[in-house]
TrEMBL record:
This is ARMD3 protein. The gene is Armh3. It comes from the Eukaryota. It is found in: Membrane. InterPro entries: ARM-type_fold, ARMD3-like, ARMH3_C. Residues 435-671 form the Armadillo-like helical domain. It comes from Casuarius casuarius. One of its GO terms (cellular component) is membrane. Its main location: membrane. The keyword Membrane applies. Keywords: Membrane, Transmembrane, Transmembrane helix.
Length: 689
């Protein structure tokens, strides 16, 4: 007997003796693509159609193959198909519901492909017709809401979320997707929250639900009142917020795990041996080979939660109660194809075995620690556009956290100590830190470590000025809290001071190149004012009097850098040029640093001469400093502990518009046919019925 092959909706006999036979569903699609009403000859046409397994590829391809005029000719049949899909969602027979959901996906995407150049209203008219749009979309959203909230099949809920993601991301710029007006009017916000608050639903659908919510929040967010923004900002239900935090933590943790696995695999391989033989000149190239695709969608969700909902701040520091409790999967779920990380949720077996795996060297963990580790990876390499966007978003999230009073309270809490193993960029002049020897410290120390790490590792030709500004602002905001609340943090402040001085040195060394692209005096002023903050208020928040002495020691030791900076800004501020005003601000800001240098340097030289010492030790310099504070005169500088609060709409709107566009394209690309074609789902329902 000749074997039968199935391809593109055709049934072929291997003997090729007869013409290819079309599947019945394909023949029915062909009837829809005529100008005649398909139910005229067959009154049961629509009833039969939704019992047939959907051929997504054929249906979507057929729509894309038509030109605009041809599509308009069959508009009535397309409208009819769309309406019957919505009716089928209310059917009791689950196979009809599955087929209706998949058909809607194909319709929405196929019609949009033909209407890329036209307005969203034309897409609505083509799909459903203006006269019936409001009622049909209301029925569609109500049906999806019911399916998501029902006790029914988890696989069916998954398909509902896929359809919603398909609907939201059908245009690159989601704010131009007029269909979303109906999603705003007929809210599914409560259904998303219900998924996040239920452990079972969250494991199966949490990732898609969180990404969907993040995208909906960004629909016309600056132009009109977005109900999803309003509702997200007032959620105070603890299980729901914790559920959202768990989903985000799991996705970021999965990214961290994949990166660590690749790093270990890379280090144990041939390249590692080669590097050890020839030195570390290939380290940068080696590092690029272990990069893992970033996850902007989940990062956007974290940002919206932190930025909009003050109650979510508490979730950042909470150890998750479900961690390590789950030992066996609850139920089998449909498999999804392997795609790059950042586009699909973590595999279900990872989630069910432990919703957030703990690091071997960390006793407890939380969302903030996971986020800091993620940030330390993506901020290593900012040359790639996606990683640059991810790095920027990480710093924006940290900015929001650094401004929040409650967040600062737990960041600086001495009773909440953690061992946070941040990833450090391989560099020739430093050894790899031993992970096991990390001390347990308040979380703010890890934030400061991350900022210092960024400052030290990104002084390069393609200078990321914007990221440096954000980095210094975060440090400043943390210092403002410490000064205000008199928190004496036991931190290795010298590492920060050294990094800041080296940054100033880099700006001066590359003055000509950098000034062609950036106003480097803005950054220089911020760095100098950080030192002014330590000089003026350091006695209120530095851990010990000797820490304050060490600050003076570092300034004196590195005085040549401050002298050079003063010479540079003085030169530019006395010339009539574009940099006159910003340079003169730095000149004024250096007054106390110069006073310290000019006061102590002669004293140190005198001490050396009297004691016949050519090179003073650190202890000897510190002794001179301590005995000469009384005669030092400093000027009181205003506004050092003040800062402008973060504002998204006025400063970051363009960044978020482009970021959401990129996420929308990525999500749509990964809603592939094979993710929508649910073989297991149909088998499951066949057995039920």
């Amino acid at each position: 007997m000749a074997q039968t092959e199935k391809k593109g909706g055709l049934l072929r006999k291997s003997s090729a003796s007869k013409k290819p036979l079309k599947e019945k569903v394909v023949l029915m699609y062909d009837e829809i693509f005529t100008t005649e009403d398909p139910s005229k000859c067959n009154p049961r046409f629509w009833e039969e159609l939704f019992l047939m397994k959907v051929n997504l590829e054929y249906l979507e391809g057929k729509l894309e193959a038509l030109d605009g005029e041809e599509l308009m000719k069959i508009k009535d049949n397309i409208n009819c198909l769309f309406q019957h899909c919505i009716q089928a969602l209310g059917e009791e027979h689950p196979i009809r519901v599955v087929n209706a959901l998949q058909t809607l996906c194909a319709l929405i995407r196929g019609v949009h492909q033909k209407n890329k150049s036209t307005s969203g209203f034309d897409i609505i008219n083509m799909l459903v017709g203006f006269d019936k749009a409001e009622l049909c979309m209301k029925n569609l959203m109500e049906s999806l809401d019911s399916l998501l909230c029902a006790e029914g099949s988890e696989s069916l809920k998954s398909l509902c979320l896929k359809l919603l993601l398909c609907l939201v991301t059908v245009t690159d710029n989601i704010s131009q997707n007029t269909i979303l007006e109906y999603v705003m009017i007929n809210s599914i916000f409560e259904a998303i929250l219900q998924i996040l608050s239920s452990p079972l639903s969250r494991r199966e659908h949490g990732y898609d639900a969180v990404v969907l919510l993040a995208l909906l929040v960004n629909y016309r967010k600056y132009e009109s009142v977005n109900p999803y923004i309003v509702k997200l900002s007032i959620v105070d239900d603890e299980p729901t917020l914790n559920g959202m935090g768990l989903v985000i933590a799991q996705a970021l943790s999965e990214y961290n795990r994949q990166y660590k696995d690749k790093e270990e695999e890379h280090q144990s391989g041939f390249f590692s041996a080669l590097t050890s033989m020839v030195g570390s000149m290939f380290i940068a190239d080696a590092d690029e080979k272990i990069s893992v695709q970033t996850n902007e969608a989940i990062l956007l969700a974290l940002y919206e939660a932190v930025h909009l909902n003050r109650n979510f701040i508490t979730v950042l520091a909470q150890s998750h109660p479900e961690m390590g409790l789950m030992t066996t999967p609850i139920s089998p779920v449909p498999t999804t194809p392997v795609t790059p990380l950042g586009t699909t949720p973590p595999s279900s077996d990872v989630i069910s075995s432990a919703e957030l795996p703990l690091d071997a060297d960390v006793q407890t963990s939380n969302l903030l620690i996971t986020f800091l580790k993620y940030s330390s990876i993506v901020m290593q390499d900012t040359k790639d556009e996606h990683r640059l966007h991810s790095g920027k978003l990480c710093l924006i999230i940290l900015t929001c956290i650094a401004e929040d009073q409650y967040a600062n309270a737990f960041l600086h809490d001495d009773n909440m100590n953690f061992r946070v193993n941040l990833h450090r960029m391989p560099m020739r002049h430093r050894k790899k830190a031993a992970d096991k020897n990390l001390p347990c410290r308040p979380l703010v120390c890890a934030v400061l470590d991350l900022m210092v790490e960024f400052i030290v590792t990104h002084m390069m030709k393609e200078f990321p000025m914007d990221l440096y500004v954000r980095c210094i602002q975060i440090v400043h905001k943390l210092l403002c809290y410490q000064k205000k609340c008199r928190v004496r943090l036991h931190y290795t402040w010298r590492e920060l001071w050294s990094a800041l001085i080296n940054l100033l040195k880099f700006l001066m060394s590359n003055e000509t190149v950098l000034l062609a692209k950036h106003n480097i005096f803005t950054l220089a002023l911020m760095v100098v004012n950080l030192f002014n903050m330590f000089i003026t208020y350091g006695d209120t928040f530095l851990p010990t009097p000797s820490s304050y002495d060490e600050l003076y020691y570092e300034i004196i030791r590195m005085h040549q850098n401050f002298d050079n900076l003063y010479s540079m800004v003085l030169r530019l501020s006395t010339n009539a040029g574009q940099w006159k005003e910003p340079a003169s601000k730095v000149t004024h800001a250096l007054v106390n640093i110069r006073a310290i240098i000019n006061h102590f340097n002669p004293k140190i030289e005198s001490y050396a001469a009297v004691n016949h010492i050519s090179q003073l030790s650190e202890d000897q310099v510190l002794e001179v400093v301590r005995s000469n504070y009384d005669t030092l005169t400093l000027k009181l500088q205003d506004g050092l502990d003040q800062y402008e609060r973060y504002s998204e709409q006025h400063k970051e709107a363009a960044f978020f518009k482009e970021l959401v566009r990129s996420i929308s394209i990525n999500v749509r690309k990964n809603l592939a046919f094979n993710t929508l074609s649910q073989e297991l789902l149909l088998k499951e329902f066949s057995m039920i019925s």
